[in-house]
Structure formats: C-alpha cells, structure tokens
Amino acid sequence: MVSSFRLTEADEKLLNLASKRTGKSRSELVRAAVQSYCRNLVSGPKRSLLDRLTDSGFKPEKGRYSDLSSNKALQRKLLSEKFGQTVD
Fold first, then answer.
1. What is the pLDDT of residue 86?
2. Is the pLDDT of residue 49 over 60?
3. Domain 1-44 classified CATH 1.10.10?
4. Is the pTM of this model over 0.85?
5. Handedness of CA 61, 67, 68, 74 (dihedral sign)
6. Which one of 6, 22, 35, 75 has the minimum C-beta count within 10 Å?
7. Contact, 82 vs 68, CB < 8 A?
C-alpha cells in the first residue's frame, strides 16, 4: 500500500542519516517506526517506568521505595531532602 506524508527538513535529514547508518531503506525505517509507535499506543494502559524496568530484568533494592512515578508526595519529600528546598 502506498502512503504519502510530509516530513520537516530536520526529520528528513534524520531519516536519511538513519538509513545510511543502518543500511535500511527509508521505507523500512518508516514502517518499523510506525509499527512500533502504533503498537505502543494500542497495547493498553500505560505502564510505569518501574514496571518496564522490572520486565527487562531490573531489580530494585529490597526495602527501597517502590513506584515513585505515582507517589507525588514522596517525590516532593525526596527532592526537598536532596535539594534543601520545598518543591511544588
């Protein structure tokens, strides 16, 4: 199927550079990027960074904090302790 789209000059330069470095055609790179991006969009609810890191084999230290991405109060507390000022 043929599709047509416009790129900014910067995006076209980036695509050309990626094509030269990988040896893949521009079409191959665009197809792969569209597949990856769209699969991520339709794959379900967004997952936290900790969830994705855990899937990759990352193991947090036992007894340390769990998912900070959803705990805004703890984020403010830790940043305040580290930088010595109140963080809003």
1. 66
2. yes
3. no
4. no
5. negative
6. 6
7. no
Cα distances (angstroms) measured from residue 49 to each of 43, 70, 87: 16, 10, 22
**What is the number of helices (H) and of strands (E) in the chain?**
4, 0
Q: For the chain, report the end-to-end CA distance as a whole number of angstroms.
A: 50
Strands (E), the chain: none
Give the Cα separation of 9 and 16 in Å (integer). 11
| Residue 61 token pair | 């230290």
Q: How far apart are CA 38 and CA 33, in angstroms?
A: 8
Asked whether 64 and 74 are in contact (CB, 8 A), the reply is: no
Cβ neighbours around 29 below 10 Å, total? 16
Which token pair is 46?
A: 């967004």
pLDDT (0 to 100) of residue 61? 62
CA-to-CA separations, 19 to 4, 6, 22, 35, in angstroms, rounded: 18, 17, 5, 17
